[in-house]
UniProtKB/TrEMBL annotation:
Source species, domain of life: Bacteria
Gene Ontology MF term list: endopeptidase activity; serine-type peptidase activity
Organism: Salegentibacter flavus
Family classification: Belongs to the peptidase S41A family.
Protein name, UniProt field: Carboxyl-terminal processing protease
Keyword Glycoprotein in annotation: no
Keyword set, alphabetical order: Hydrolase, Protease, Serine protease
Transmembrane regions listed in the UniProt entry: none
Span of domain PDZ: 80-150
Taxonomy of the source species: Bacteria, Pseudomonadati, Bacteroidota, Flavobacteriia, Flavobacteriales
CDD domains per UniProt: cpPDZ_CPP-like, Peptidase_S41_CPP
Keyword presence, Hydrolase: yes
Amino acid sequence: MLLAMACALGIFLGTQLNFSSPSEGLFSSNPKKEKLNKLIDYIDYEYVDDVNTDSIVDITVNKILENLDPHSVYIPQTEYANVTENMQGDFVGIGVSFYNVNDTVVVIQALEGGPSEKLGIRGGDRILYADDAQLFNKDFSNDSLTRYLKGEENSKVTLKVLRQGIEDLLTFKIRRGRVPIKSVNAAYMLTDKLGYIKINRFAETTFKEFRKSLEKLEKQGATEIALDLRDNPGGYLSEAINIADEFLEDDKLILYTKNKSGAIEETYAHRQGAFENSPVYVIINENSASASEVVAGALQDNDVGTIVGRRSYGKGLVQREMELGDGSAIRLTIARYYTPTGRSIQKPYDNGNESYFKDYVHRYENGEFKSIDSIDVDDSLRYETPEGKVVYGGGGIIPDVFVGRDTNAEMENIILMHKSGMMSRFIFDELEKNRKFYNALAREDFNEEIEISDEMIRDFLQFGRTENINVRVYRYKDVLKKYLKATMAAQLYGTDAFEKLINNGDKIIEKVIELSEKKQ
């Protein structure tokens, strides 16, 4: 009797409470959703041939999102884990980058801070066995090999490794752990006063890495910062906000967002930053997008620092990741963001996605990469900062100090060969010729002892021909030598060494140093 009365009371109270949420109506029944469900069911049960309806659903979702905007995207189940891992800032595994060379796992580099580095695994090591599984002379894809090397955190794996110059196999008992995926590529001093930080994307750990880099540079005497956001496609908005806050005084507006209903959410600086009253130079180019533009726009509109380089990409839309229940997800545009002066830097996408993504070609042909005067601006989107500086909306951040780009075909080819991974594969083979020497070479001795010869350039161009890439390098042979040497430094010592070498002679870096010296 008492139990029945308690249940009845609970039911009555439940009917009096309002548990509705804004998302409740999203999944309620309606004819449009039922129509799609029926179509899939008919194909599943009635269609004459067997059809993979999962692929049909994927195509349908992609088509729907393509008709919204260029940045609402579908992440299939097969890609979701990798995409998430890349943005988390770390992964669980043994901590190596590798090539599959002649059906053998060959270590390119033991990743800094990972389990393999701590146990002494080196570039050039061949991983032949993981526990009892043979990893050589097998037709494994890179994904399949990765599954042997990754695993649950704190799980153990025994590796048997062949190392040049050692007859017997080496045994390493490794406990898998979290391996950082760095979003800060480099942090070093450009001059006695000017520190340099390069950020490649905004992941979950970016601000933490950035703060650590700032502290390191402060100890080395940095009173000014060059923040390099070139080729940074964006990422987590919160990380960009935190970084902008380091340079802005309290209560300065960083950005505001506006959603479908017109609701505005403003974000202000609120924390004491280490460089609030110090010069800062934000370096951008045509591939700096989204969160990178948030940082540049917030500082520019608050008359803080100097933006140097070329006009940024022009992405002013905010996405939210939403899971679809089967391991896949969508990143759906839910709002636009605006810089403190009220400008949207989103470039138009009215002519469809293909035209939108070809904007890069239009800029190239228009001469924008060489001259600031070639940038198309809309006078109706003209704004002024508190100190009267004119800025424009409608398509990226226009820098305060423009530095053109070398668009010579030879230079373009060098950059493409680097980005394609071709240089990395060639340099790996070069290191393999004398792995013992290179692994023993101290970083401080690298610059003086290593020189890229004309013979190596010829070998590289021949290597390119075997990859069906036939290029000529005349005027830019010295630039190619610099890229090859920097790629070698990256495989031996990491991204910091690469950036330091590649920035030597860089026009934008030289301009930043010039601007810094004028202030002193």
